[in-house]
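Deviations from the work plan: none for this task. Representative record:
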Amino acid sequence: MRLLVSCRILPWRRDFSSTARRRVIRDISELPDRVRPSYVQRPTNTLLSLQWPSPPRNILITKKKRTPGITNSLIEYSTHLSTTYPSINVIVEPESADEIHERVSFPVYTYQRPEHGNASPEHLSDKTDLVCTLGGDGTILRASSLFSHATSVPPILSFAMGTIGFLGEWKFKEYKRAFREVYMSGASDAYAKLEDPEVDHRSFPPASPDDPLDKPLSYADIRGKTMGANRTARILLRNRLKVGVFGPDGSRMNSLPESGDTYALNEVIIHRGSSPHLKIIDVFVGGRFLTEAVADGVIISSPTGSTAYSLSSGGSIVHPLVPSLLLTPICPRSLSFRPLVLPAETPITLRLGEKNRGREVEVSIDGKRISEKIGVGMEVRVLGENVKSEDGEWCGGVPSIVRGVNGLEDKEDDHWVGGLNALLKFNYPFGDQDSGH
Amino acid sequence: MRLLVSCRILPWRRDFSSTARRRVIRDISELPDRVRPSYVQRPTNTLLSLQWPSPPRNILITKKKRTPGITNSLIEYSTHLSTTYPSINVIVEPESADEIHERVSFPVYTYQRPEHGNASPEHLSDKTDLVCTLGGDGTILRASSLFSHATSVPPILSFAMGTIGFLGEWKFKEYKRAFREVYMSGASDAYAKLEDPEVDHRSFPPASPDDPLDKPLSYADIRGKTMGANRTARILLRNRLKVGVFGPDGSRMNSLPESGDTYALNEVIIHRGSSPHLKIIDVFVGGRFLTEAVADGVIISSPTGSTAYSLSSGGSIVHPLVPSLLLTPICPRSLSFRPLVLPAETPITLRLGEKNRGREVEVSIDGKRISEKIGVGMEVRVLGENVKSEDGEWCGGVPSIVRGVNGLEDKEDDHWVGGLNALLKFNYPFGDQDSGH
Amino acid sequence: MRLLVSCRILPWRRDFSSTARRRVIRDISELPDRVRPSYVQRPTNTLLSLQWPSPPRNILITKKKRTPGITNSLIEYSTHLSTTYPSINVIVEPESADEIHERVSFPVYTYQRPEHGNASPEHLSDKTDLVCTLGGDGTILRASSLFSHATSVPPILSFAMGTIGFLGEWKFKEYKRAFREVYMSGASDAYAKLEDPEVDHRSFPPASPDDPLDKPLSYADIRGKTMGANRTARILLRNRLKVGVFGPDGSRMNSLPESGDTYALNEVIIHRGSSPHLKIIDVFVGGRFLTEAVADGVIISSPTGSTAYSLSSGGSIVHPLVPSLLLTPICPRSLSFRPLVLPAETPITLRLGEKNRGREVEVSIDGKRISEKIGVGMEVRVLGENVKSEDGEWCGGVPSIVRGVNGLEDKEDDHWVGGLNALLKFNYPFGDQDSGH
Amino acid sequence: MRLLVSCRILPWRRDFSSTARRRVIRDISELPDRVRPSYVQRPTNTLLSLQWPSPPRNILITKKKRTPGITNSLIEYSTHLSTTYPSINVIVEPESADEIHERVSFPVYTYQRPEHGNASPEHLSDKTDLVCTLGGDGTILRASSLFSHATSVPPILSFAMGTIGFLGEWKFKEYKRAFREVYMSGASDAYAKLEDPEVDHRSFPPASPDDPLDKPLSYADIRGKTMGANRTARILLRNRLKVGVFGPDGSRMNSLPESGDTYALNEVIIHRGSSPHLKIIDVFVGGRFLTEAVADGVIISSPTGSTAYSLSSGGSIVHPLVPSLLLTPICPRSLSFRPLVLPAETPITLRLGEKNRGREVEVSIDGKRISEKIGVGMEVRVLGENVKSEDGEWCGGVPSIVRGVNGLEDKEDDHWVGGLNALLKFNYPFGDQDSGH
Ligand SMILES: NC(=O)C1=CN([C@@H]2O[C@H](COP(=O)(O)OP(=O)(O)OC[C@H]3O[C@@H](n4cnc5c(N)ncnc54)[C@H](O)[C@@H]3O)[C@@H](O)[C@H]2O)C=CC1
Ligand SMILES: NC(=O)C1=CN([C@@H]2O[C@H](COP(=O)(O)OP(=O)(O)OC[C@H]3O[C@@H](n4cnc5c(N)ncnc54)[C@H](O)[C@@H]3O)[C@@H](O)[C@H]2O)C=CC1
Ligand SMILES: NC(=O)C1=CN([C@@H]2O[C@H](COP(=O)(O)OP(=O)(O)OC[C@H]3O[C@@H](n4cnc5c(N)ncnc54)[C@H](O)[C@@H]3O)[C@@H](O)[C@H]2O)C=CC1
Ligand SMILES: NC(=O)C1=CN([C@@H]2O[C@H](COP(=O)(O)OP(=O)(O)OC[C@H]3O[C@@H](n4cnc5c(N)ncnc54)[C@H](O)[C@@H]3O)[C@@H](O)[C@H]2O)C=CC1
């Protein structure tokens, strides 16, 4: 439906004037390969430190849908990045590319929307250094779903537009400082004097034969003031769920066979959906039958998702760093189906047995419904993602950049405790303190 | 689709031989008018006593759907009634009439299935003296929904087929004794010697000019042994909800405009249904704004329904004789939305405001989905049914015949307490008492 | 300990100067008998209207304990009453009498503190027309406990000092208007021009031979502007629990044998108290065994108490006008002990059986511990109070004066809905609306 | 009170006949030092394998209190050990030593009961190779509390007497097989032909100058059939809580200053205890203020304790292998205090602030009350125990021997899933399956 105006496909665009040349949509396949950061744990801190080997260049920016004014924010933000950090390439989603490419003075990169609803966009996970989201929790979930078949997700920096969500961290007005901290994070040699007016801010890197896009940028190239090696962005590595949905015949239903499992950030659910009747779901834990759930549905949630649907269904709040999976029933027809918290490495299977009347059920991952007809005989198989490799390296998960800078913890709030109190109104006290009664 | 083989419509059937003549399907409009019992409260008992002015004659029998063997039970049961109580007329649902009329030696009465899905069958509430259900709670709910526009529902006698439900009371094998108790309930003059072999059991009342159908039967006509005036069937009068569903333009959506409100036995719910997103529902209580529910949905339940969906959603168990309405959220996105129990006479309104993204929501009454497209702007208005008239008479509600005979309470279980323990496994003790561990 | 300085006991005080004469503590037995109001239900309103046959005269004022400044408020309030309504007699608790009698220019009445901890003060319920409380919910509970052996409790008007409680209604600064509304409530003949400076406010009624104390005051005696017959104070008649605590030998433990049952406004609880071990409590409902609770304890609560301890233990919120009793377990060792809501007229018994290890348990009524040694074999028997007599009159209960005036409902909030939202933070929405995040 | 009849103290006992000599109570200080097993993790299994370097010799057996018949079981069990495994030394608690030493033909070892209530018995943790408990969960908790100041607890083998608890695993009648499996666990060289009648079962090892007690036993010394190196006992390493209770002046209140923190297997609680009023407890997480709990109390629980008090208070069920701490309020006066699951390494502090009325509160560890007067200003500080050392070795925790043998998993139940279903009646289905309705 949407036409991808790729430079490769439409090379004549290159002949245009320099102004016009910038108003193009390019394909992400043209971008240099991704810069992979490492995550370092300091003994005194449970959060990780982000360490770029060289400055990030390819920045994906996603925005909330159907929100007035948000396109302007996208333009403002991407223009800031492109102007302040000339080596940066801006990637946006296809619709955003259509919307903004004529209104900005730099090329925007995008990707082909995959044909199969649950497939991941090609090249995206090989080219994206950093993801920035403008919106709420839903926008973060959608951004994370763009990497739902990738084992390595780029760090995500989230800006709230309007109300702050539980997963988001920064207010949009903080974007300059927040981005700079992330951009410089862990650089130990030299630093850009980024806001120095004398610096020659090249609006676009030269397209010379030895294109700088092909060799990594070095922090030494960036002139400017030192920020101190210890001031690193703080990463909360959120472990995800590996989800496979299988039909009665054993075939995969949530993705193309070659893409394998889908990763979920919050949860996967089976639910009665549009049927007004109870569903009967067999639950297996660690390969053994645990119980038959007669309920509206069942949630398998990550600790991150413990404050999402699972919370509404009566689950406990689990800190994102507890390596665990939550099994939370939705409206069970039983007085004794208490939510369970299981080790992250426990395989869980939900099977929709023969007893079910209704033909179709809802299966959703992170609030996105899996579209195929799913019914009796289906299985959802889940395993927690391992975020520490054999040799002790941190890998996998969704690296979420949280407020505060490592090295300055004492002056900062704990983001999670803050979220409980300010957003979830955890243990909100009784009384008339804020009523005009 | 189904052809109602009514005697009036197809009079030639009348000319058949007496055997054949019985194998007909007749229309309920031919039946004598309903016999309305009264319900008497004894000081020592919270349950009511059923008191027939004259023996019931028109018995509606409904059965569970899609259950093997149940048609045979229907035939067995209706044959017993027809043989033992010759003055009784058997009414069944249209499908059942098709299934059994050729296999029984008495005429079966039925009604036209209404064209509009939520309308009530014509004449049914004017002709039915007593309802018998063969099935589980779902069958009772379906039977009660046949009277969902009637202010006066006939008493319901329920037989469990297989597992006992929470609303049902008798095992099918008890049907002879159970029916007799109900049939004779409150007769104070004389009684039938019902199982006396000498009695001439007329298999069908004579179709004479002065058809006995037109004048009420008297207990004096029934020869037989006295059962004692105090042995009356025990009635639990379950108060219902009066539900109106209105579109954004104020038009009724749950029924034909002329049929007015629909009565629910368990509950009415608004639910996100097939949309994977939260719904935002404004709740008004007593005409005043109470709260904005952000949730999967909201339940308004009768005390009877407190052990149904509301229970699964975390509601308290409310005894059916507490005159109340329950407001129970389904998976609310709030830590502080505790279920509420409100006075039965409180009007409650649920309104689906503009903020909702999804176009369509599920509205279900007693587990039956209201089919019309229902969306933003819609309102569900609920009021508890009043089961005591101004002058202190018991009226309305669903008169459910519960185990035990008034006058013999001491030897009987409390049916509700029994149900909590045996069926809901209320406060089921920990330990290995029944495990083979 | 405290010496009651009663006028009868110490008649020499009468000989003092008129100033001194007022600084006395008198015994309530000297007061004229109580004026009993009636409670009228209007069809359009669930709250009752307070109707005095003649203006109230004997006003009991109780105050919160251990609260700085509250004695000054008591003096301010009682002085206002005494000055503005000369026929009013001020009753206070013995400690308050000691504290204030030298600081006010009118006599204060009080009573003998009963010797037995759980007995009621003599005469109090025969002499008190109206109770005013200065404090929070605890003060209202304590005031109500002064009438815990009386079947007819005077209306209670509550002023919050500091934070508003759930049972309290007015802020202290509203006391003039609030009291006047109550004082005049239902007077249909004539009204006092109460704040008219010309009126001769007799500071004390003359102690003539035909003491006006002996004949009821009439609204006609009170000169002033009409307030309109429809402007009546609104009464929420809170039904209480009738509680009997019995030892293993069947003897009463919560009161003197002659005082009979104790009435509770919130609840009665059995609890493990200081023992660190589970208690095992047999629960009987309607005379039949319901269940064995293995738990920290069990609460039997009135609907009023549903927002107190029962709420903290997971009970539903029940509107005070739902005639019911709540059975809520405290930390039960069972996954399936859901709170129950039972008809108000159901007798409930809790029995502490032989299986219990600990010798002693806590039994508390409205947060006040019953002091005697209570242990194995003990029984707590509870029944809801009936607030409507055979002939349809409202009686019993705790008549709580709630905000708003009958006849002006539309302009007023619903006090209960308001309390849910403003005080209990019912369904408090997520998000950062009031955070400075 | 009790006199420890130690061999060292009363040497004349040594002069007695050999029969008499055995009827002595000896002090554990005489025993050879403890044999410390290692715990090996197999990739395919989440449970650990018990591996003795040499056969265990010093076996502590504890039994339930106040239970008729249990002393006989203790005698039966200890006699079996002593007869079948001649090198084994039986250690019992002081009271048991008094009870049984005259009834058995081998010496029993015991220890001095410490004077200070919360101190640990001297030498016990240096001498005990294995703990066996005869009783229920309470007996296991008491056994574990004997090691509440030790960083290394011996493996615990638990036999249920009567009903099976959630922490216990074997029925008493299985003791022979169960003990042999534990005894031989991980022996890779040679095995005893344990039940071979030809074997000379020395009823007691000779007390020669070169006492065999002083050199470790080798599996090679035990003649008999090989059991296979893979058949090892399965260990669930339950991580504990490190608890410090501090007075307002910063002094330790739960133990002697030199013993440091106390380890809890289930939980530590602060509770209102005998006071009928709410407590106000400040909760700090990771050094930062989290919330003010207004409640009956607060529980900090290990995952093992998640099925104990925390469950009764509404907490989720957490698998013992999820490295976490639970913060569960007891009857909080808030609608929004949902239980929390935090990373095991998070320090939590509970502080009893100035606002509290009552002077004294209950602080209990594993159901045992800390006796000192504890009140305003007190702090409870908790940290999860780390069960994996820097170099990846398993250490600490309570090594609980669970059913099944490693290497034979497929034929065995999952003990935890089994416990949920059989003991906690997790998700117990509705219906009349086991009622005689
Ligand atoms: N009854 C419920 O609570 C339901 C919850 N959801 C949740 O919504 C998510 C999808 O989000 P949207 O597409 O925005 O749908 P949506 O428009 O239905 O909003 C979901 C809400 O959940 C919040 N949320 C999402 N993830 C969260 C997290 N990890 N912690 C705390 N709050 C979180 C969002 O801020 C938003 O308020 C799903 O992953 C599911 O967890 C979806 C359906 C029903
Ligand atoms: N998650 C849940 O708990 C859900 C419950 N329902 C309930 O199902 C009812 C419709 O019943 P069916 O058509 O048979 O649907 P269904 O096949 O989904 O079964 C509903 C179950 O609820 C039981 N039930 C119905 N009314 C009851 C009552 N008053 N007390 C105790 N148990 C009761 C039935 O025995 C059956 O086990 C609805 O009125 C609603 O209350 C419907 C959807 C979901
Ligand atoms: N964990 C808990 O929730 C506990 C609650 N209580 C409650 O406290 C009451 C005694 O009150 P105090 O002597 O002031 O003790 P308190 O100092 O322990 O305070 C009890 C709290 O409950 C509130 N409260 C009392 N009655 C209420 C009602 N009907 N609805 C809503 N809130 C109410 C009060 O405003 C106060 O905040 C008892 O009747 C019992 O209901 C007592 C002990 C523990
Ligand atoms: N309301 C409640 O649930 C209370 C629970 N307790 C629990 O009791 C424990 C002390 O036990 P006892 O001295 O025997 O006291 P107890 O005689 O009060 O019995 C406690 C009960 O909890 C069970 N239990 C203990 N630990 C368990 C675990 N980890 N998982 C599942 N069930 C468990 C026992 O089998 C027993 O049924 C405490 O650690 C505390 O967890 C103590 C007081 C109240």
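Chain B touches chain D through 22 residues (CB under 8 Å).
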